[in-house]
Amino acid sequence: MGYVWHESGQARYTVTGVTGLAPSGTVRYHDYRAPGGARLTFEAYGEAGWEVAHGSRLDQGDVTVYPQGRGL
């Protein structure tokens, strides 16, 4: 399976809860796609090293998001 570059960039992030990351900072990323919906992404948060993730495209009907009450 061959991956093709899709996009690269950087973004600012802000976290809530316990994540192991600084409360806010910059994330750099490189995203790649393959035929059939496979995804490959490289991310680096702040000065941390690169992390890699592999996945597949989800259809909107595959995911349900429930609201969480404040203070939980």
Short description:
This protein has 72 residues and is mainly β. The chain has strands at 4-14, 24-33, 38-45, 51-56.
Q: Pick out the low-confidence regions.
A: none
Helix fraction, binned, reads under 10%
List the strand order in the largest sheet.
1-2-3-4
Radius of gyration: 15 Å
Order of helices and strands: EEEE
How many DSSP E strands? 4
Largest sheet: 4 strands, antiparallel
Pick out its properties:
DUF4178 domain-containing protein, DUF4178, 72 residues, single chain, four-stranded antiparallel beta sheet
Description of the structure:
This is DUF4178 domain-containing protein. It holds the Pfam family DUF4178. Residues 3-59 form the DUF4178 domain. This protein is mostly beta strands. The chain has one domain. Helix content is 0%, strand content 49%. It has no helices and four strands. The chain has strands at residues 4-14, 24-33, 38-45, 51-56. A four-stranded antiparallel sheet has the order 1-2-3-4, with no helix packed on it. Strand 3 and strand 4 form a beta hairpin. The protein is flat, with a radius of gyration of 15 Å. The termini are far apart.
Task: Give the SSE map.
Elements: E1 4-14, E2 24-33, E3 38-45, E4 51-56
Antiparallel strand pairs: 1-2, 2-3, 3-4
